[in-house]
Structures are given as C-alpha cells and as structure tokens.
C-alpha cells in the first residue's frame, strides 16, 4: 500500500505540470491573433457627454415616494 504513494505523487506532479503548460500554450495562442490588441482610434465615435445637461440629472424625490 505504501508503494503507491510515490507513484501517486509523481502522477500528480506530471498532471499539474502538464496543465500549467497547457494554460501557457493557450495564452500564447491568444496573443498571436488580434483579439487582445488595442482598437485603432477611428475618430468617428461621438464624444462622451460631459454631464452639464439638466436632462441627465435624476429627478429629486421628496423622500416619502422613494
């Protein structure tokens, strides 16, 4: 029974190392395509509202109808 302990430990280490290598390989594959690259600045996008409008302000409630 105690002879299985080193075999189980070696198998666990091999499985852990192979999983780490598989994850590193997947990260390496994802870095190759343009999925995680920055988007180009088109300049056609509308700018964000600066928030000075009265329409963007929420209505004030009197506290009893909240």
UniProtKB/TrEMBL annotation:
<keyword id="KW-0472">Membrane</keyword>
<protein>
    <submittedName>
        <fullName>Uncharacterized protein</fullName>
    </submittedName>
</protein>
<feature type="region of interest" description="Disordered">
    <location>
        <begin position="35"/>
        <end position="66"/>
    </location>
</feature>
<keyword id="KW-1133">Transmembrane helix</keyword>
<feature type="transmembrane region" description="Helical">
    <location>
        <begin position="6"/>
        <end position="28"/>
    </location>
</feature>
<keyword id="KW-0812">Transmembrane</keyword>
């Amino acid at each position: 029974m105690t002879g299985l302990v080193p075999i189980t430990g070696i198998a666990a280490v091999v499985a852990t190392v192979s999983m780490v290598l598989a994850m590193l390989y997947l990260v390496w594959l994802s870095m190759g395509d343009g999925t995680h690259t920055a988007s180009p600045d088109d300049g056609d996008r509308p700018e964000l509202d600066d928030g000075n409008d009265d329409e963007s302000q929420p209505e004030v409630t009197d506290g009893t109808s909240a």
